[in-house]
Amino acid sequence: DDDTFSDVFCENSKKLINVHLFALAAKYYSLSNLGVCTPLEDILEALRGGNQGTTDIKTDKFMNNKKSHEVQVMSELVDKIANYCGIKQVIDIGSGKGYLSSFLSMQYNLKVYGIDSSSSNTNGACERNRKLKKHWRAYQNQGRANLKSQRLEKANHRPVESEIKCKTINEKPLNNDSSLQSQDQVTIEVLVPSCGFTEIATSETSRQTEVDLVARTQSHGSKLSEEVLPILNVLPADAVEVFSSTQCISGELCKEEKAQRKMASLKAKASKSSESNLHFPLTSCITAETELSDIVTDLEDCMMVGLHTCGDLAANTLRIFTAKPEIKAVCSVGCCYHLLSEQFENQEDCPEEVWGFPMCQYLKDKGWHCGRNARMSACLALERVAVGQVLPTESLFYRAVLQVIIEEMYGVTKSDRHVGKTFSKSSSFIDYVRKSLKKLELDDAKLPDSCIMDYYEKYKHRMNELEAFNMLKVVLAPCIEVLILLDRLCYLKEQDNIAWSGLVKLFDPVKSPRCCAVIALKKDSC
């Protein structure tokens, strides 16, 4: 009952009078409590029809823990959606340095175009591409060398017993062949990374290689073929050479083994032909009117993704998705709400302008606006604060006092320039103020050190008030974020060509605070 929270603010002064009720109200209207999110497990279940085939890829060698977590979770979902829609092309909007793009291409064999407005990011993605290819080749060569080494040790191993306990390999097959789920799989002792990202676990049984399997008697030949050959579909196509028991015994290949060799050869050729391009980094500024076919010359049926698309880019991603028939699905995680443009923030009547908020007709009809302060609050991370990660109170205090200084001493109330991360590069408050004034192109010579410190001393006793105020902003953050996310979801619900749309919590909010994705599939893709 909304009346429960009617006593949070004073009816006359509008001041906060009940902090406890304020916190309860904020929790009540948060995304987790409203029940509007679709569980990720339900989505994956619907897309793949079961819980099998989950990848367990280690990406922390190529990116930090936060990015690794995001890329692993989102890439698996994107792959399932792409398979469900029967598409192989992915457009990664705001791709940055290509972390998601390269992983989707290498691990899931998708053709990915990463588009970013920053040429430095695109160049960084190209350089990262080069390094990843180098690692990929190295891992493949290591796998071949290990297999050859094991063959040389053939005489030193005992014959295998008639029954071999096999451990299932849970790596994602490179060719996405779902039939592998039902085939027998065998673990080899050598560590052979899959697609350059992870390693297959060793068997816990006695030291046993596929060379030992070759030494099995002819009576076990058919079982050997069933157990060993599927491993070729798990590894990169040219990581191993096909072998068989009959090769050592009679020199003749059965039909199954001939077909397997042919398939491995075709995969090896396909792998070599595509290896030069893990993904395609492109530089372009994306707007709601962007024609993707002008950027991606071979545009085909595809899906659009965005991992932490900044500001209006998240909204424009959804607009492009609904407008372009080639785009069959979208998976977008937005961020930087403070950079959203708002149609009604300044009460300007610009009907032809495309705004980041609001998107849905319902909020447009009501002339809804948040304002920059509210959007800034939406960027705060309640879950991180809840587990003990403190707010940067001192840097916020520095910034607040600086605001007073530039207003009173320079008469500046608004500027297009930004202070940025000056606090982390400053040795003291005086140093911070002087560096900030230079960034704002204001003359710091007119401001002596004593004057700067007078401002500091005047307001330092209010630092606790500032901390308390920011804690209230943190508590309110999820409510503002849910408004922005529901606006985007409602926009999709208003479209006639959408078969399904929803909000899905993808990431651990402590690791990645902007953790919710807006996902949609078009009617002709299902």
From TrEMBL:
One of its GO terms (biological process) is methylation. InterPro entries: Methyltranfer_dom, METTL25, SAM-dependent_MTases_sf. GO terms for molecular function: methyltransferase activity. Gene3D superfamilies: Vaccinia Virus protein VP39. Residues 66-343 form the Methyltransferase domain. It comes from the Eukaryota. Keywords: Methyltransferase, Transferase. This is Methyltransferase-like 25. It comes from Antrostomus carolinensis.
